[in-house]
Amino acid sequence: MGIITVARGSYSYGQEIAEKVAQKLGYDCISREVILEASEEFNIPEIKLTQAFEDAPSILDRFTHGKRKYIAYTRAVLLQHLTEGNVVYHGFAGHFFVEGISHVLKILITANIEDRISLVMERDKISRKEASLLIRLTIREGDGEKRCMGSNRGILASMI
User: Fold this and answer.
1) What is the CA radius of gyration of the chain?
2) Domains defined along the chain, listed by start
3) Sheet with strand 28-30: strands edge to edge
4) CA–CA separation, 65 vs 158, rounded Å?
């Protein structure tokens, strides 16, 4: 039973790589649908689940444990998929959700800044300067690679 989690920086081709690995191995490839399933299964708006990963807890969350519950709901749905085995997961906090599971291959995919700039310029039809600014803002706001490198590790890990 193989499980692979892929953390990726923005504009790093991480999604494409995860999908190709899954296809080559004959594994299921899951990502955003985990959030959608958790939203449906627990009757929580998708935006609240997404914000649980991206935003700091509000004052109300500190008393109601809303953020902690939303992360737990998402983790429950992801773990349901992982128990089936032969899965590649690329999405929110995959590395943290599988902590303690021994048979997981954890991968971090990044790309150098020049490759990212070229990708964004081509995809969005924007100038080099605009692409560079967009990438730097995305990284500063906390894309996947920044989280995996440790800035939010303690926060997410303590909620699981």
Assistant:
1) 16
2) 3-159 (3.40.50.300)
3) 28-30, 87-90, 3-8, 104-109
4) 13
